[in-house]
Amino acid sequence: MLRQYELVELVKSYDPDADEDALNRAYVFAMKKHGAQLRESGDPYYSHPIEVAGILTKFKLDSASIIAALLHDTVEDTDTTVEEVRQLFGDQVASIVDGLTKLAMIEQKSGNSKQAENFRKLLLAMSEDIRVLLIKLADRLHNMRTLHFCKPEKRMRISKETLDIYAPLAERIGMQEVKSELEEIAFSELHKEAHDSIVARLNFLREQGSNIVPKIIRQLEKDMKDNGIKASVSGREKTPYSIWRKMQQKNASFEQLSDIMAFRIIVDDIGSCYQALGVIHSKYHMIPRRFKDYISTPKPNGYKSIHTGVIGPENTRIEIQIRTTEMHEIAEKGVAAHWAYKQGQRVEGKNFRWIRELLEILEQAQNPEEFLENTKLEMYNDQVFCFTPKGDLIGLPINSTPVDFAYAIHSSVGDSCVGAKINGEIRPLRTILQNGDQVEVLTSKAQHPSTEWERFVVTGKAKAAIRRYVRAHKRDQFITLGQEILERLFKSENLEFSEKGLINVLQNFEADSIDDVYAKVGEGLVTGWDVLKAVYPAYKQSKLEKVVKAIKVPSLKKVLKKGKDKGEPLKIKGLIPGMAVHYAGCCHPLPGDRIVGIVTTGKGVAVHTIDCKLLEKFANEPERWLDIAWGDDAYGETHVGRLKIMLSNEPGALGDLSNLIARCNGNISNLNIVYRTVSYFELLVDIEVKDIKQLSEIIDVLKASKVVSYVARAAQ
Description:
alpha+beta, 4-stranded mixed sheet
């Protein structure tokens, strides 16, 4: 554990103007407040914040960050308040500690949404001041270093969270050292056998090539010197986790990887980088598809370097990275390598594009879990670099499409995207983008996001925006439907319907507005009778008889297709985006059947045949019944009809059955043997047909067959 004077000396070694008095006071304050508290290792608890502060000194952070690191657990674990921190150490420190404390409080919660809510809070805090993230990463790094003292279940949970969230965040701000160590510890916990196996192979290669690495370094140094390039050369081994991940991505064995050992050539300026590259490529054979120029096209986190793979000295396949000293500093320390903190400036996270994009996803997400899912997609390494017609660089994950590209430019561009030109040619929106593609997005004010897009987009930002539009559109439909249901129900019971009455009962349904109530009724989360009884508590429900004949219910055409002629046939399929209308699996309705719609919980409208037995369950809920009919276009669609068949148990019987169905242009989509005896099979067969007429023809043909003893339409 760092002693007080050692910590102060470390800070002053790179920042002579640091507030020495405040650093000393913070160190003592943390020790006194945490007092006799112990960690799971048995060490005094105050050793943790001191070590976190020590980690940050390696990245030369300002004294406000170091003080906040010393105090980051005091508000959570002791009687200290944020106001007390503000009075003693100032607004900057108090603000950072407050952001970190909120995170810690969330982390103590239980439940599936804890991790998602924690990450949401982290994003909001770091968007105000990026130092919150830097301290949080140092905090997580020290916790990972002492992870072995925790119970196995906790170790696994923390390791998975580290790989999912914190390591990608460290990569995003360019803190390569922190990222690599977090990944390495988490990997050794989650996949111990794979980790140990790779470590053993690396040790073997290290012993075998103990003389090769120095020889390669000496030869590269000589190559640079012979060409008048001042450079330092070093070799580094890839981490076990990065090797394992590459093996997974490329489905390759350890022996097939060509860049387990990488060599860095560090020069004085950018011109020397390209000069060094010319020397390497002129002397050694370049390995195809192994060249990447991150100087002309930097990574989103600011990383710059030239990467190339060659058959190098000693006839060995190696990777060479060429960069300047400044680039190397940024590559290892990322955001922390910039000296913005030295002057005590507050750096807002919103200045970073990727944080702005995560904030957009946060605004569009329905809940913390969805936000976490989409941001995990957004945070992993960018693999594809494409250009706008103006030459602006857009970094995207691998397998991205023009729709992902459009949303990366701006949400409004994505929402109105109708097509794309890739390298000057019109291409489908689901086209996979390649490195160097120039993409021009074609837009239209009349266009809206399509639910189909979600099937092929890969970025979290695109998925979040599409889901948001679908939810909003669906909600509008549910509001209209719910209002119609309530108006009809109140009228049928001779009661006055007014929005004033609904305002008085909003709390009954955890609703903030009348539209919320309408939407819940339309979606089936709340019944119309629940609302009626809330508005008129003393009212008694009338006795219902023969619901289907007695109750006149609102038509879907009227509710969901306003502006259409009354005589126009109903279009069931596609009424509400996002599967708000579906065919009931109990009766498998087909065009030609008399049908009725039932508003179901969370799934919109279920279409049943009028004689379906399950309708009895809704006899006392007339407000959920909808009077619907098939439209002309429905007869052109393929639907599934279900038959119950008794088939003779003899060779060729099943073949005869399928041939008979095929002759009637039916297609078997599913077949289930319900019961089997020596003499017969009892089958449930799902058949794709156009309408009830075609299914009836199939039934007639099967009845005439000698291998079929019984056939009828199946009913639940």
